[in-house]
Fold:
Amino acid sequence: MDFTLSDEQQMFADTARTLLGDTCTPDHWHKLMEQGAAFDAARWAQIVENGFAALLLPEAAGGMGLGELDFALIAIEAGYVALPEPLVESAGIGAPLLASLAPDHPALADPAAIIAVAPAINPVVANADIAAAIVIEKDGHAFLTTPDKVTLTPVESIDPFRRLFRIEWDAANATDLGPADWGLALDRAAVFAAAMAMGLAQRAVDLAVTYAKDRTQFGKPIGSYQAVKHHLASAQTAIEFARPMVFAAAAEVAHGDVQSRARASQAKIVALEAAEQAARASIQVHGAMGYSWEVDVHLFLKRALALKQSWGTPAFHTSRIATRVFSQPVGADQTFAREKQDA
Amino acid sequence: MNLTYTPEQDAFRAEVRAWLEAHVPTGKLEHFDASREGFEAHRAWEATLKSGDWGMVTWPKEYGGRGLDLIQWLIFEEEYYRAGAPGRVNQNGIFLLGPTLMEFGTHEQKQRFLPPMASGEEIWAQAWSEPQAGSDLAGVRATAVLEGDEYVLNGHKIWSSRAAFADWAFGLFRAPGSERHKDMSLIFFPLDAPGVTRNPIRKINGHVGFAEIFLDNVRVPAFNRLGDEGQGWHICMATAGFERGLMLRSPARFQEAAAALAALWQRRKNTCDPALEGAVVRAHVNAEAYALNIYQTASRLMAGAKIGAEASTNKIFWSEMDIHLHETALAILGAEAELVTPTGEHDWLDDYIFSLAGPIYAGSNEIQRNIIAERMLGLPR
Structure:
């Protein structure tokens, strides 16, 4: 039993923090928004070059063969910079799903290729137009297709950095890859959404702290007033208790049992709640500035709103936790228990 | 990260479970705050625990402990709450003063005070708060004056948990006329020493859970001062870290309560608002979030880290989750929630009342939020 991150994991996360922090600054956000764009090819190339897109792929497929916890640490950093590019969707969800079904697919050989995923649970699919492969769920099977063989209708998200499409497709123009582990794909998606939420939440708090130290009213920094402090302390508390849940959920995803599914659901719920709480606290602490487009806090609220309802709503995830609570032993000795069939 | 127990840890759990099954009293003891009889029954249980060498499992053997690590402590706590074993009447000693003594005490002080603490022969109360110094603890007025090799203690302490029946107290005193935070010392005194008067105070559940203490020229040896003279504030803050953080509120307590809540829901769900299921599930989620945070903290401490201001987030989290859990139970009980529970049944009502103390004691949650904002986030005072 050891709940610490390894030195390698921390170094890897530091590398991601530096790369994304340097290349995805407020100036970059503003530039993309002015252009009406949500994808920066140069930044994507750097992400790929550093191996982050191949992290979960098996070494046989040219990947790094690392695990979900390693990837979650990168996803936290992606959340911290409100990353527009589909690192999490493609490398965290799409690539390992495709690798499990068609390990020799050419899209896996190109580390820059984007693999879009259309699970039944989501009404829209991100970045489908620029994908080298689209994996669609139907009746438990995975169907493989490409943007030229489907009808994509762009839909606008409140998050300016989410590129979403409704998709119409015909099974005749897709390859049936057979039954797929959509449960595992959903668990990964939930855990990585939760990890991104940790980054979103911390950035929202950090922005508010910086502002509250600087902004003065009644002759003092507003951050010296308890009413302001307590908003941010509550948000930080929510972060501190969501983070270990995200780490544990990531470390346990591969079990694929009722406990690991419940843990992924717990992580998604508490992490997205923390992100929403932090973003709203940050807006409140920024006052009227927080309600303006000019201050960037809104980006973190919007991503949190989007991720909270994608990949399973809170109600969906609560029902998965209820299944675990009411079908398996609960209590103090059950924290790390695995599924019992005869429970 | 490895979230599985080793075979040794599994074997340890089995050993703890077997011992507790053989020794935990079958009937529920009267609460240690309810009467002298209840208090002494819990002291006797501490002696039973000690007879199996389970008094304080993480302490070094030479000081009456078992020399185990923090993961083993968590396993022990899980089994302890699972077995429904009695509450620890000496919690102020073993979970607060004990770790503080371990860090700041001399070898002689540890030898003198820790073994009888681990065995329950000496039960401790905390004597910090005063009528004019609650959240503003640095405002304490009680004085300690060194005369030869003795301290002379004077003052008025209040809200001292267990002090109605306990044997010893650890108090915060200052040199007369000294400034806030400065020249304060942590000094131990026997609660039956000449010059000590203690008046029990009833809690809102009717129990004499705490007392006020008057000290009138109470003389104790200078040996009873922990750390250097004037180091009292620093030591108190370290103790407060233990109080808010790892030791006092082990996750097992909340996990067992959440499991009992799930069972209560299963029994009564046909007679109450179906929407309450979400709150029952949430109580489980909260308890697991707390447990995972503590496993993470235990692992970090074992790897050499120290507890910092993040202990204040623990205090807020467990106290708020405890209230949520118990208000959910009362909502399930509905119109029966107000009925005083028959002896021997799960006392949701009394536990709810107790949960309301959580955001107050060990430093109010308002103070904790100030600490988080100032020391974790760096906001100005």
About this structure: Chain A is about 55% helix and 10% strand. The CA atoms of residues 78 and 196 of chain A lie 6 Å apart. The mean pLDDT of chain A is 96.
